[in-house]
Amino acid sequence: MKVAWAGSREAFQVSDRMAKLVANDPVFEKFSKPMLGRKELFKNTLRKAAYAWKLINDLRLTEEEAKWLRHYIDEPNYTDLHWEMFVPAIEGQGTKEQKKKWLPLAQTMQIIGTYAQTELGHGSNVQGLETTATFDRQTDEFVMHSPTLTSSKWWPGGMAKVATHAIVYARLIIDGLFHGVHGFIVQLRSLEDHSPLPGLTLGDIGMKFGHGTYNTMDNGVLRFDHVRIPRNQMLMRVSQVTKEGKYAQSDVPRQLLYGTMVSVRQTIVADASKALSRAVCIATRYSVVRRQFGSRNGGPETQVIDYKTQQSRLFPLLASAYAFRFVGEWLKSLYIDVKQRLEANDFSTLPETHACTAGLKALTTAATADGIEECRKLCGGHGYLISSGLPELFAFYVPACSYEGENVVMMLQVARFLVKTVSNLGYKQPVGTAAYLGRVTPLLQNNCAVQTAEDWLNPDAILEAFEARAARMVIGCGERLAMFENPEEGFAELSIDLVEASLAHCQLITVSVFIQKLNHEIPGNGVKRSLEVLCYVYALFLLHKHQGDFLATGYLTPKQASLANEQLRTLYSKVRPNAIAFVDSFNHMDHYLCSVLGRYDGNVYPKLYEAAWKDPLNDSDIVDGIQQYVQPILKQKLHYAKL
Ligand SMILES: CC(C)(COP(=O)(O)OP(=O)(O)OC[C@H]1O[C@@H](n2cnc3c(N)ncnc32)[C@H](O)[C@@H]1OP(=O)(O)O)[C@@H](O)C(=O)NCCC(=O)NCCSC(=O)/C=C/CC(=O)O
Ligand SMILES: Cc1cc2nc3c(=O)[nH]c(=O)nc-3n(C[C@H](O)[C@H](O)[C@H](O)COP(=O)(O)OP(=O)(O)OC[C@H]3O[C@@H](n4cnc5c(N)ncnc54)[C@H](O)[C@@H]3O)c2cc1C
Fold it and tell me: Which domain of life is it from (predicted)?
């Protein structure tokens, strides 16, 4: 199962080796993080990042190994933006000459980059950005300027204190004419003494949600006061500006400017399974240790995992972690394919890839953020302790619903793709993840054939139910949209239904990828049979949660919906015996989990007790402030207090 989770034996070995390397090195200790103040926390992260870079070079780690190493260090820091956004932006949007100049510098970290797109006033609406890049023909330069307060760049990670360079997105202006938003490579700091270059105002945007998690990152603010950069620092694969000031567009589509976001959204889906599996591992292990009620004849009380209600909250999350792992793997292969095509100037699959990355990013991050919080509640009161590992995990994870495309905004992108696909149905056969929309007649006409709870243990029945529900919702939206004279007005009016239809489409993708995985790629019958159970749990849990959709579209009868729920409850009993094996297969080490409740050895109570004594308040019996503020109250000789 560990191999099935990792994707291959080699993938397992690489991640396992890196997990152990990090866990066994005292530099990467992280239990004390929540006790540190912001400055110490930040310096500590800089120290770890520098040490990690040394390890990467000394041990000659491959790119894959380096990624896992950074993952297990488990602290957001400036290198995330450098590797995940700055380098890919140059790779995707730079010309050959630009890549030749900038990539060697970035890949050896002689420069450190960030991705400065969002502004105080605009994040989702990229075309609404206000920073200007005005071409000056006399000097062959762009003048970067922040004309308003709301045009201040706001959020870029690593920008406040570390990055030496940034890809800055700004409105290109030539001779007073606006030519859209483009990316520019801008140097922010001196490579000699690290001070901000003249004309730039740089700072940190302040503390964020949680304590020891995202505050290791220096998310920054940046303002330009007429800062000049050479013309050849505009990323020019998509559009070019000549020294005469002529604006030209190559045959590469404008959407490629958004390519870096496609790349990162794909990794965010993979990361969702890591975060959710981490929370589920903690909650499952603790649910086995924790006992409440149910003692018979003085015997042990019941393990809370044996309560049906606990199982009905926990096991769908366990199944979701596996579903997200497999859909993340599938999305990566889709992305690798589109990347190769884009390099060869084949842009045909970009719209579908954009819809998949946007939609699955929204689906998986929303479910993971909710899932982590549910796991905290599944651990009862102790889940609220920092030492459970869950509050910090939640605080670290939850911004994924907003960054890299706010989730609802992303679902609306999926909706645009689906509406376009439906409106082209007469003359363009949909392919890939939208292929089912090419079979609308049977999907709209045929109803579910399930008659017993057992009948739901059939991948074809499940797939057809999810396809019919999505098709009916999408087609229904399409028909209602056609009644509007102004399509944009219609889109806005129907946006709630469109987001729900997009979610149905994305859930269909995750369910079908899970089924596909079982049909083709699982080694060993025991592993396959166990994963089949999780696949059914995932699908039937979604069916139960969204049964309103399945019923309202008329595909299911109430009886069939209740048979699905009956089967789901039976499946929980089949998950129970393997629950611990399922979470052990994630191969999360104690260091990575950073949770007393989720310890591999289950030694929870002594270690919880021990952890409490490490709190700074327990350094002494009488702490600072007691004599000054509490003792005077105790020593007052009042007969009565007037309230
Ligand atoms: C909301 C977005 C997608 C665009 O909105 P809109 O103004 O409606 O459209 P445009 O005119 O700009 O473009 C529409 C056109 O382009 C297609 N498209 C959009 N995005 C992509 C893409 N990524 N790849 C390919 N194609 C794309 C779209 O389908 C339309 O095609 P048509 O053929 O129908 O014309 C956009 O503004 C957007 O993406 N907003 C979200 C901003 C965002 O994600 N910011 C991330 C900042 S970096 C960050 O958050 C870092 C976090 C830290 C970390 O990750 O650790
Ligand atoms: C931790 C963190 C790190 C970040 N790092 C970076 C970084 O390194 N570089 C960078 O450039 N940016 C970064 N960002 C910024 C991030 O990309 C944006 O915050 C994100 O894209 C969301 O945009 P917004 O803040 O403008 O949200 P808004 O768009 O203002 O969203 C507010 C609300 O409006 C709704 N809404 C907006 N538009 C629509 C619409 N058309 N229809 C319906 N509803 C709508 C949304 O659903 C949401 O509910 C980071 C953000 C965070 C939290």
Answer: Eukaryota
Residue 459 lies in a domain: yes
Residue 159 resides in a domain: yes
Q: What pLDDT does residue 90 have?
A: 97
Residues 194, 340, single domain; the answer is no
Q: d(Cα 42, Cα 33) in Å, to the nearest integer?
A: 10
118 in contact with ligand 1, CB cutoff 6 A: yes
Average pLDDT estimate for 498-514: 98
User: Is residue 126 within 6 Å of ligand 2 at its C-beta?
Assistant: no
| pTM higher than 0.90 | yes
User: Is the CB of 354 within 6 Å of ligand 1?
Assistant: yes
The span from the CA of 287 to the CA of 310, in Å, is: 8
ipTM over 0.95? The verdict is: yes
Over residues 398-406, mean pLDDT: 98
578: pLDDT strictly greater than 80:
yes
Helix (H) or strand (E) holding 151: none
Judgement on whether residues 427 and 404 belong to the same structural domain of the protein: yes
What's the 77 CA to ligand 2 centre distance in angstroms?
20
What amino acid positions are annotated as catalytic residues? 404
Q: Which of 584, 600, 629 represents a domain boundary (last residue)?
A: 584
Residues 116 and 182 in one domain: yes
- Residue that is last in its domain, among 557, 584, 611: 584
Q: Tell me: the pLDDT tens digits for 479-493?
A: 999 999 999 999 999
pLDDT value, residue 638:
73
CA 402 – ligand 1 centroid, Å: 13
Residues 197 and 282 in one domain: no
Q: Which residue puts its alpha carbon closest to atom 9 of ligand 2?
A: 156
Substitution site in 403, 410, 496 for ligand 2 pocket (most atoms within 8 Å of beta carbon)? 403
Is residue 634 in a domain? no
Q: Which domain holds residue 199?
A: 89-250
Q: Is residue 410 part of a domain?
A: yes
How many folded domains does the chain comprise?
Answer: 2
Return the DSSP state at 624: T
Instruction: Provide the token pair at 59.
Output: 């041990």
115 pocket-lining for ligand 2 (C-beta < 6 Å): yes
DSSP string for 269-316? HHHHHHHHHHHHHHHHHHHHH-B-S---TT----BGGGSHHHHHHHHH
Q: What is the DSSP letter of 253?
A: -
Q: Are residues 144 and 293 in the same domain?
A: no
% of the chain surpassing 90 pLDDT: 91
Query: By C-alpha distance, which of 597, 580, 585, 604 is closest to 527?
Result: 585
pLDDT digits (tens, 9 = 90+) for 287-346: 999 999 998 888 999 999 999 999 999 999 999 999 999 999 999 999 999 989 988 888
